[in-house]
């Protein structure tokens, strides 16, 4: 039977075809720059279109997939609501109309979903409401009930699932009640929100503020199912962060950094601390911060010609001029004259002396007769080029990279292919220590991940000799920092177009290759990997070259993604990876992609790996909270296809499934609760560096999430030193039972259990103990006849219980065993 999984969590929508007005961008808004206004000879077809920020509602992942396929950039900053998905989008007027024609709703300022913090009396349930013990027949299950505090306020987050949740007529409703602490009664009834995505029931859930921490909740369905659950603490009572240690040095980053600044500082660190740091250069150079020089010549689409130089703009393409010339006379042929880098197209005339050259004819002449100066010439976009070309004064080709945004960093950007340096920090860089790969800025517009990663690197080298815990990290791990994995796109974001997401490699055919599309070219590097790729039918990657999630012409087509594979294959000690993004405030892992038809995810990690991910997430996020009480809520933690969206061809899946690397994805810059307004304030890709320290600012996000990265290093160090075998038990244990009994496995640490029930010895090929459902604990076995369980457990570090060797059939058979004897009398 195929298990169908559903996703929950956040997504965002930002259209990339126009310039983006970002009120929070520190370098100012992307200009709605008119190239036509820069010179009277330029065509308005080169202009960036005016845009506006709108909030939208999509009915679910099916609509989301259609919008992605249409070429829109869908990523980050939105939220899943009971009726679908709400997001923000920066759209041109044409894009807004197109989305509305697809059924996307444009939300008004007073529209949208908000959690109801007030008790509403709940729903009226049918049938008997007797609390049932946890067993295989239970129709209602509590997935999680988490209490957390932030900014002096307490919150309860609950997820519950009913086996009848798919029922649509009538829709099954769920009621949530909580007590006020031990030995108090249930009350404060609330109707839970039912979440369905593309026809697939996920669960019911609620988030609301409470004055007192409850100890239990009760969930009741409208069909009569009822259960109780204990309330757990989420990120409470965390150990103090390293920054609390006496004399600990932090707060090294004073603003956003360009790739040149990041790489320059990485090389300085390697020079200043040669005993613990070095630079590893990645072998595949990027395409470079460079483009062919272009011009769109002509005032209307049908008669316009798009011209691209053979040389890169900075290597001579920018020196080319093209002029369309009207000559007196009749019956004149179409010819091309080239003098140096000045190209004159002498337009044809018919018998009456009227201009007769079509755009298609002029384009063909330029490609064949321009003395190698022009590499590409074609009609504008999808036009056939049948319009008659009008005369034009000389138009200078340009790569459009000489325009600097207001407030952008000073200094010229190096042109040409870039070599990406990896800053490697560790006392023992010989492959004997667990390696941790920190990869930042796959997506160019995400500036905080780079500063967060550099801050963590600075803390390692500056505190190595003075802080005991940092010394342990440096001596027990081998850390690899890629401070910007997309330098070309990042430079474009800093200097040209703040909302650039992809790299600068232009794979677009003629219909999308004109300079008016220049802000939409490139490949989404986190859709360019081999596992669960869009090329294999998984959702979340686009085949449209102008889409924000364009997956590239083939898997690993881009040098930036090839470099990651090279790195983990060369340094096989890399066992952990964090791909740092912004700005949704999620921490996630596998499964990361799904096939839309049936929402079938990639294989879920073994229950032990899943538990290890959750345990690590708790440690990491507790350290984030320690800085200023920012809480990444439980709904935003887990498999990314569950909490975020499907991201076909992402790096995490490739590294986990191909190399066994514990690969995390992190969206830094999550929502911060504002007690003054009672609202959760979301982040942005480039929040103001300085701002209210208790709300959204680049500096605060950098510091708090650097805390989390430091804790990830400690997770890896502990993993490398873990030599203890796990322990597991069957609950209740073996023995005689009068009638059927429900049993389950428990472990003393995150561990995967392999078991048999046919009397055979368990091996790594035996059945694996799995979760009841996604985000839930292990399954319950309903035993109706005498059964012997043979099993062993393996922890995340590979230690096997009782030193059992499942690969050898020795006489010891030191696996665990228990027999459930059922007395049927």
From TrEMBL:
Keyword Hydrolase tagged: yes
Q: Mind naming one GO cellular-component term on file for this protein?
A: extracellular space
Output the SUPFAM superfamilies linked to this UniProt entry: Zn-dependent exopeptidases
**Record keywords:** Hydrolase, Metalloprotease, Protease, Signal, Zinc
User: PROSITE patterns annotated for this entry?
Assistant: PEPTIDASE_M14
Which cofactors?
Zn(2+)
Q: Could you name the domain of life of the organism this protein comes from?
A: Bacteria
Question: Residues in the active site?
Answer: 667 (proton donor/acceptor)
GO BP of this protein: proteolysis
Family from the record:
Belongs to the peptidase M14 family.
Q: Name one GO molecular function term.
A: zinc ion binding
Tell me the protein's name: Chitobiase/beta-hexosaminidase C-terminal domain-containing protein
Is Signal among this UniProt entry's keywords? yes
């Amino acid at each position: 039977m195929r298990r169908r999984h559903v996703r929950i969590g956040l997504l965002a929508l930002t259209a990339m075809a126009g310039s983006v007005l970002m009120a929070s961008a520190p370098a100012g808004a992307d200009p709605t720059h008119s190239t036509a206004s820069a010179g009277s000879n330029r065509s308005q077809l080169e202009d960036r279109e005016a845009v506006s920020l709108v909030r939208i509602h999509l009915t679910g992942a099916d609509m989301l997939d259609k919008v992605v396929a249409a070429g829109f950039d869908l990523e980050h900053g939105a939220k899943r609501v009971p009726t679908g998905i709400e997001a923000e989008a920066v759209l041109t007027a044409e894009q807004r109309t197109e989305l509305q024609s697809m059924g996307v709703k444009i939300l008004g300022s007073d529209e949208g979903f908000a959690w109801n913090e007030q008790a509403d009396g709940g729903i009226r349930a049918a049938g008997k409401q007797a609390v049932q013990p946890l067993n295989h027949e239970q129709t209602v299950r509590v997935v999680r009930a988490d209490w957390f505090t932030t900014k002096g306020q307490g919150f309860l987050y609950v997820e519950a699932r009913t086996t009848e949740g798919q029922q649509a007529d009538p829709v099954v409703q769920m009621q949530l009640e909580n007590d006020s602490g031990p030995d108090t009664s249930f009350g404060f009834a609330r109707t839970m929100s039912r979440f369905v995505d593309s026809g697939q029931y996920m669960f019911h859930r609620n988030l609301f503020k409470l004055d007192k921490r409850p100890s239990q909740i009760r969930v009741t369905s409208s069909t009569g199912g009822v259960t109780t659950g204990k309330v757990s603490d989420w990120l409470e009572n965390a150990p103090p962060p390293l920054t609390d240690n006496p004399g600990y040095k932090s707060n090294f980053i004073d603003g956003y950094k360009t790739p040149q600044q990041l790489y320059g500082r990485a090389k300085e660190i390697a020079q200043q601390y040669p005993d613990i740091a070095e630079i590893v250069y990645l072998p595949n150079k990027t395409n470079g911060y460079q483009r062919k020089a272009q011009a769109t010549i002509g005032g209307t689409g049908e008669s316009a010609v798009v011209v691209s130089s053979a040389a890169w703009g900075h290597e001579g393409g920018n020196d080319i001029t093209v002029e369309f010339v009207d000559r007196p006379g009749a019956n004149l042929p179409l010819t091309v004259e080239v003098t140096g880098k000045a190209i004159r197209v002498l337009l044809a005339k018919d018998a009456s002396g009227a201009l007769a050259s079509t755009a298609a004819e002029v384009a063909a002449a330029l490609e064949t007769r321009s003395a190698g100066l022009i590499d590409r010439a074609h009609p504008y976009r999808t036009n056939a080029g049948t319009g008659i070309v009008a005369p034009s004064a000389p138009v200078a080709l340009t790569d459009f990279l000489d325009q600097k945004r207001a407030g952008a960093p000073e200094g010229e950007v190096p042109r040409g292919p870039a070599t990406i340096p990896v800053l490697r920090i560790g006392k023992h860089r010989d492959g004997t220590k667990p390696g941790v790969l920190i990869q930042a800025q796959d997506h160019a517009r995400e500036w905080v991940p780079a500063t967060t990663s550099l801050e963590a690197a600075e803390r390692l080298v500056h505190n190595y000799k003075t802080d005991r815990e940092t010394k342990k990290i440096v001596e027990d791990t081998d850390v690899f920092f890629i401070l910007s994995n997309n330098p070309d796109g990042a430079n474009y974001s800093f200097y040209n177009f703040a909302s650039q997401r992809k790299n600068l490699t232009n794979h677009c055919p003629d219909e999308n290759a004109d300079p008016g599309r220049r802000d939409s070219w490139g490949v989404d590097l986190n859709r360019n990997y081999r596992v669960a790729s869009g090329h294999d039918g998984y959702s979340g990657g686009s085949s449209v070259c102008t889409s924000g999630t364009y997956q590239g012409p083939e898997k690993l087509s881009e040098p930036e993604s090839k470099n990651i594979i090279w790195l983990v294959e060369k340094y096989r000690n890399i066992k952990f990876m964090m791909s740092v993004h912004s700005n949704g405030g999620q921490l996630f892992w596998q499964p990361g992609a799904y096939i839309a038809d049936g929402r079938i995810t990639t294989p879920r990690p073994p229950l032990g790996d899943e538990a290890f991910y959750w345990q690590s997430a708790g440690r990491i996020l507790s350290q984030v909270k320690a800085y200023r009480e920012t809480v990444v809520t439980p709904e935003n933690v887990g498999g990314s296809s569950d909490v975020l969206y499907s991201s076909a061809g992402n790096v995490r899946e490739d590294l986990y499934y191909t190399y066994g690397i514990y690969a995390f994805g992190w969206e830094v810059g999550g929502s911060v609760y504002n007690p003054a307004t009672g609202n959760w304030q979301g982040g942005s890709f480039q929040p103001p560096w300085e701002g209210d320290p208790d709300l959204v600012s680049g500096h605060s996000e950098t510091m708090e999430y650097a805390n989390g990265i430091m804790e990830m290093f400690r997770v890896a160090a502990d993993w490398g030193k873990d030599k203890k075998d796990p322990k597991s038990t069957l609950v209740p244990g073996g023995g005689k039972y009068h009638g059927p009994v429900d049993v389950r496995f428990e472990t003393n640490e995150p561990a995967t259990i392999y078991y048999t029930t046919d009397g055979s010895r368990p091996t790594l090929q035996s059945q694996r103990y799995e979760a009841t459902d996604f985000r839930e604990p292990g399954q319950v076995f309903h035993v109706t006849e005498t059964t012997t369980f043979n099993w062993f457990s393996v922890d995340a570090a590979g230690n096997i219980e009782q030193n059992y060797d499942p690969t050898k059939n020795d006489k010891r058979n030191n696996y665990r065993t228990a027999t459930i004897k059922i007395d049927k009398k």
